């Protein structure tokens, strides 16, 4: 036994240098990546067909352009479209596991788990709330879609506005694919333009512009005193520790999460979540629980000290919102009742995972006009039709730089992006939503202006929203606000 013990002590010292020299190049998560790739394509095709009402050629040419290796083509491949069930399956054969997504009323397409099939569709959540009794076509903007023909205000430079429009659509980089552009000045639409194959009713994914809508909903609860910026989130963290009261994650506040400085282990910040094999990609594209994933991370930094852009940091306040609202029906109806229905956002679907939890970090499908309404709510100081929906204090919070964003040029607030310190060609008070593939709602208080740009950018992308703002403001004078 003594000899064996000596061998056990010596062998690690002898072998560890050789082990250390072995390259760690094996992809242990390749199975996850394949599953996520197939799930992403299933969701994008499903929403493209049944939420956006686009054609399969449009989807392959634009929606799927973001995928490095989409499966099949418009002529067919390892995917199935079931129009009757409004569902899509991608994979099989040599293309990896079959992943399925199905359209659900009021929600959009929900990704299913790998062990579910089309027979499980009826178990997925729906949202069957009736809409307010009004006809958008006969209701004046901004509550409806009836836009009165007006002359362009005399102070607006029409030529400069046209030039800005051309700047947005006629890009030298084909990867920058503008779908729509809107400019709202003093509440009126002064520019609205759509690419071929897109119109005012076309719904596309907001990606992370959804985070700013999340902040709006959370702000309403903070304004009511039902949530607090500087109190702990009050979540049940996973994995549960033996003594939850000593869990260091209990110190994470709502402010930390909204400022993207929770201190939790990063799972998305080092690369696109679409291809992340262990982070939010599992919830977005593979049927995992978005709520559980957000809570299943360890603390590696003191909260509030380090800025790290994480989808799950947004889903933490969503989990806290669910807990605050109490019952599922109240939670499920909250976005519609408290925000969307009040400001005329009838084209907006807030999607969930298969467990019924809102994926409010990314998966909202909407059109340009509905996003303009969100911007207009902020431009009007949180007031809509004389009713205060959001406090000025909350708007100040979301537009104040997160302390931990200072190394990045103070460019991030509370789920909104701010003009960075080194940018001097646009007003410093401007702020913006920002979503993958070029989804922007830009609010410019000094010019009483809201700008909406929707895109299906891909590849390197790099559409510059602040340069777009600069171009548009050449046409619009300051209003003194």
Please describe the biggest sheet, giving its number of strands, its sense, and whether it closes into a barrel. Answer: 6 strands, antiparallel
Instruction: Briefly note the CATH topology name of the largest domain.
Output: Beta-lactamase
- Order of strands across the widest beta sheet? 6-5-15-14-13-12
SS-derived structural category:
alpha+beta
User: Helical percent range?
Assistant: 25-40%
- E-strand count: 15
The fraction of residues in strands falls at 5-15%
- The Cα radius of gyration reads 24 Å
The dominant shape is globular
- For the record, the CATH class of the largest domain is Alpha Beta
CATH architecture of the largest domain: 3-Layer(aba) Sandwich
Output the helix-strand order: HHHEEEEHEEEHHHHHHEEHEEHEEEEH
DSSP summary: helix tally: 13
Task: Describe this protein's structure.
This protein is an alpha+beta fold. Helices cover 30% and strands 12% of the residues. It has a six-stranded antiparallel beta sheet with strand order 6-5-15-14-13-12, with helices on both faces. It has a four-stranded antiparallel beta sheet with strand order 1-2-3-4. Strand 14 (440-444) and strand 15 form a beta hairpin. Helix 4 (158-169) packs antiparallel against helix 13 (465-473).
């Amino acid at each position: 036994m003594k000899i064996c013990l000596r061998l056990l002590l010596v062998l690690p010292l002898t072998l560890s240098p050789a082990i250390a020299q072995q390259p760690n190049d094996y992809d242990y998560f390749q199975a996850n990546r394949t599953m996520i790739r197939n799930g992403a394509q299933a969701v994008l095709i499903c929403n493209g067909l049944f939420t956006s009402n686009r054609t399969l050629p449009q989807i392959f040419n634009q929606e799927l352009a973001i995928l490095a290796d989409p499966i099949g083509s418009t002529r067919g491949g390892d995917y199935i479209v079931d129009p009757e069930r409004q569902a899509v399956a991608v994979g099989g054969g040599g293309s990896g596991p079959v992943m399925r997504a199905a359209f659900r009323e009021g929600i959009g397409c929900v990704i299913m788990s790998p062990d579910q099939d089309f027979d499980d569709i009826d178990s997925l959540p729906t949202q069957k709330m009736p809409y307010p009794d009004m006809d958008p076509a006969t209701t004046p903007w901004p509550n409806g879609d009836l836009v009165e023909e007006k002359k362009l205000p005399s102070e607006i430079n029409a030529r400069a506005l046209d030039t800005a429009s051309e700047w947005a659509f006629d890009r030298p980089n084909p990867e920058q694919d503008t779908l729509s552009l809107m400019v709202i000045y003093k509440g009126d639409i002064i520019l609205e333009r759509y690419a071929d194959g897109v119109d005012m009713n076309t719904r596309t994914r907001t990606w992370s512009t959804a985070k700013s809508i999340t902040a709006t909903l959370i702000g309403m609860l903070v304004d009511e005193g039902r949530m607090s910026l500087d109190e702990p989130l009050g979540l049940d963290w996973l994995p549960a520790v033996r003594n939850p009261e000593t869990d260091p994650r209990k110190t994470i506040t709502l402010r930390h999460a909204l400022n993207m400085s929770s201190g939790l282990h990063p799972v998305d910040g080092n690369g696109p979540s679409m291809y992340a094999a262990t982070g939010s990609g599992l919830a977005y594209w593979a049927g995992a629980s978005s709520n559980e994933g957000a809570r299943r991370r360890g603390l590696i930094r003191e909260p509030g000290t380090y800025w790290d852009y994480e989808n799950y940091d947004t889903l933490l306040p969503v989990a806290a919102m669910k807990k605050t609202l109490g019952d599922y029906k109240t939670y499920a109806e909250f976005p519609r009742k408290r925000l969307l229905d009040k400001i005329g956002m009838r084209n907006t679907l807030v999607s969930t995972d298969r467990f019924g939890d809102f994926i409010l970090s990314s998966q909202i499908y909407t059109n340009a006009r509905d996003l303009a309404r969100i911007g207009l709510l902020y431009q009007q100081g949180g007031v809509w039709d004389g009713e205060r929906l959001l406090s000025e204090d909350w708007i100040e919070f979301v537009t104040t730089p997160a302390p931990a964003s200072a190394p990045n040029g103070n460019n991030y607030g509370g789920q909104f992006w701010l003009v960075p310190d080194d940018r001097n060609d646009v007003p410093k008070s401007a702020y913006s939503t920002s979503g993958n593939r070029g989804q922007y709602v830009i609010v410019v208080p000094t010019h009483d202006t809201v700008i909406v740009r929707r895109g299906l950018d891909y590849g390197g992308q790099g559409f510059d929203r602040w340069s777009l703002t600069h171009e548009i403001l050449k046409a619009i004078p300051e209003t003194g606000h």
